[in-house]
Design brief:
The structure is a homodimer. Helices cover 44% and strands 14% of the residues of chain A. By secondary structure, chain A is of the alpha/beta class. In chain A, the strands form two sheets. Chain A has a six-stranded mixed β-sheet with strand order 7-6-8-9-10-11, with helices on both faces. In chain A, strands 2-1-3-4-5 form a five-stranded parallel β-sheet, with helices on both faces. In chain A, helix 8 packs parallel to helix 9. Chain A contains 13 helices and eleven strands. Chain A has three domains: 44 residues, 434 Repressor (Amino-terminal Domain), CATH 1.10.260; 110 residues, Response regulator (Rossmann fold, 3-Layer(aba) Sandwich); 128 residues, Response regulator (Rossmann fold, 3-Layer(aba) Sandwich), CATH 3.40.50.2300. Chain A is elongated, with a radius of gyration of 26 Å. At the A-B interface, helix 4, helix 5, strand 2, helix 6 and helix 7 of A face helix 4, helix 5, strand 2, helix 6 and helix 7 of B. The first copy, chain A, binds a DNA duplex through helix 2 and helix 4.
Chain lengths: 347, 347
DNA sequence: CATATTTATGAAAGCGCTTTCATAAAGGTG
DNA sequence: CACCTTTATGAAAGCGCTTTCATAAATATG
């Protein structure tokens, strides 16, 4: 292992001062040709790379952005992340990623620990994408930790705004996806539409559920509690939800699922019980991604524009860091991707 | 935004020296009750958190581990990551994650940049999981960057060993999965077995392909070049591969796919052309994960023990950091998970 | 050519923390 | 009780970098 070599040593060996080496490295000021060559030679000789910690300490700025994300393997979050990372890099920032594997019933306050760490690392800004913020009522200690974070740094949160918080909020879920799906299924003739969403108590679910109920109301349809099953976002959850839907005796011909994975799990469960999608049951997903394009049948669903959203998130944060805070609002384009999982009723 | 407060200010306001505050924070030495209380009060008042950069600088150690991973959304890598993160945290390390979104034909040398950054950040150790190292012949500049990384820090690489490298290598792929699948399909009566693997030129693919060819040989079966299609690891690749398999006139009754996603894409393609899995064609996956458990039909495949592997990787790195380097070798348990995508031939 | 301006450079202070060294106070020993 | 440990504390140096301030050299200006 090579011992760490410092600017000081580079300076000595190339017969210049530390200041000059530093200036050469940062290009802040022109260095004479002669010295530049000496310096370059010595740097190359030792493969020298400046110590970022020391630099940050001296600069009072780390050029690092923290991002706290509940489940990076979730395609929705992953695509947001990719866009954010790209934009951050272009602006000279390095990303410090914390994947919290947030699960509702988990005891460990992982997110709070990560908030604390981000403060300690003195990152220049933080992006919080979902997680406990999405719970209908986040724990007091979480809220305190988030506020403390917002007090120390520029923070942009993707989720429902919390009153009096020093953070900035951006809430892309307004139930419009459910509305689109509902109208679509309704126009195909479906009147008994079930809803298998994400976890109860989670904001996004509540919003979608509210939209769902409002639509039932609008169309003068009865709201059947038995047609609502809330679970989680994985295939196994869709599977379980579909089973429980079938156990109840309330009839239904169509299902709105929280995302593609849930829809795929449900298709599997229906199939296992002898029902076919879309012939017996239609199913559509609130959150389309590539998994739904290769399943059998392909899952019809709402494709959200993560490209735009990711960009908006990082841009907002960068603006915050630069102090030119300015509230933006954008209509998120989302479109219906049609597979074969829905079918006109009664044909 | 709160201005940053330092140990010095805490010390002044609680009438002790900086040294005492530092000692209190790190618990290195007992501090008298009286002073401790003063200090605690002032810290609470300001919500003070020590600056990690300064700490690292002074300590010459960052308690940070770098991990470079080609695609964290890939379930295989994600499960490795979760295990690694858990173990690292338990040992007091924070993870700096770089997702390279490595793609073979990409021009940008992302990985090399990240190696450089990790050196600059003076992380205490690095884990490189796949990526360009998996190419049959990584570029010279990549190798140089990797070696430079290994020269500066303890580095553990998951991938095929490179001679003379200062890094440690751990190569979990030996083709045994393909062997298991082949025997399984053979025992079901299949003799015309196709292989749709990951990218050509990638080590893991070559290893699996070599195993595949050796098995054909062993069973005295003809090796048909038309039955081998190399693409990538996503569903769309499986889809394309299956199409191209059907275009050729070489008959086959079974397919070994690189992973579940590829298998699912292939099933889709066969279906689109009027063939049913498993009735017309059997298909099995080298890398089983949950996606294959909910597809229709469920995909039979090799489940690799990522729990064990992740643990081995991080343990090896930690040992390296502690200087107690010791080569371990473990047999990776992998087991056959049976779905419904394979069927006895001719019944 | 004398003076004013620009440019290249170095010395040294400072970023926020840890730790060595020194010292004073407290406790233990025969 | 004199002496030796142990324990709690502070002063100050040092980690590797940036940057201000000062200075010397080079160039421009009238």
């Amino acid at each position: 292992m090579k011992e760490n070599i410092t600017i000081k040593q580079i300076a000595q060996e190339s017969n210049v001062s530390m200041a000059t080496v530093s200036r050469y490295l940062n290009g802040t000021v022109t260095v004479s040709d002669e010295k530049r060559q000496q310096i370059e030679a010595v740097i190359a000789k030792y493969n020298f790379t400046p110590n970022t910690n020391a630099r940050s300490l001296s600069l009072g700025r780390t050029m690092t952005l923290g991002i706290v994300i509940p489940d990076i393997s979730n395609p929705y979050f992953y695509s947001l992340f990719l866009e954010i990372q790209k934009e951050a890099t272009l602006n000279g920032y390095t990303i410090l990623l914390y994947n919290t594997s947030f699960q509702q019933n988990r005891k460990e306050p992982e997110e709070e620990e990560y908030f604390q760490k981000l403060i300690q690392y003195r990152v220049d800004g933080v992006l919080v994408l979902g997680g406990q913020i999405d719970l209908a009522s986040p724990s007091p200690s979480y809220l305190q930790a988030l506020n403390r974070l917002g007090d120390s740094l520029p923070v942009v949160v993707m989720g429902h705004p919390i009153p009096e918080s020093p953070c900035h909020f951006l809430d892309p879920e307004n139930g419009s996806g459910v509305t689109t799906l509902f109208h679509y299924l309704y126009s195909l003739g479906h009147r008994n539409i079930a809803f298998i969403g994400g976890n109860a108590g989670v904001r996004i679910t509540e919003t979608r559920l509210a939209a769902y109920k409002k639509l039932l109301d609008l169309h003068r349809l009865d709201s059947q509690p038995d047609l609502v099953v809330l679970t989680d976002y994985y295939s196994q959850d869709g599977y379980q939800a579909a089973l429980s839907l079938m156990e109840k005796s309330c009839p239904f011909t169509a299902v709105i699922a929280a995302n593609d994975n849930v829809a795929i799990g449900a298709i599997r469960a229906f199939g296992d019980k002898g029902f076919s999608v879309p012939y017996d049951i239609s199913i559509a997903s609130c959150d389309h991604f590539s998994a739904g394009e290769y399943s059998i049948p392909r899952v019809t669903g709402i494709a959200r524009d993560t490209y735009l959203l990711g960009r908006l998130l990082i841009d907002t944060l960068l603006q915050n860091i630069r102090g030119t805070s300015e509230d933006i609002s954008i209509d998120f384009s989302s479109s219906l991707w049609e597979g074969e999982s829905c079918r006109t009723l009664g044909k």
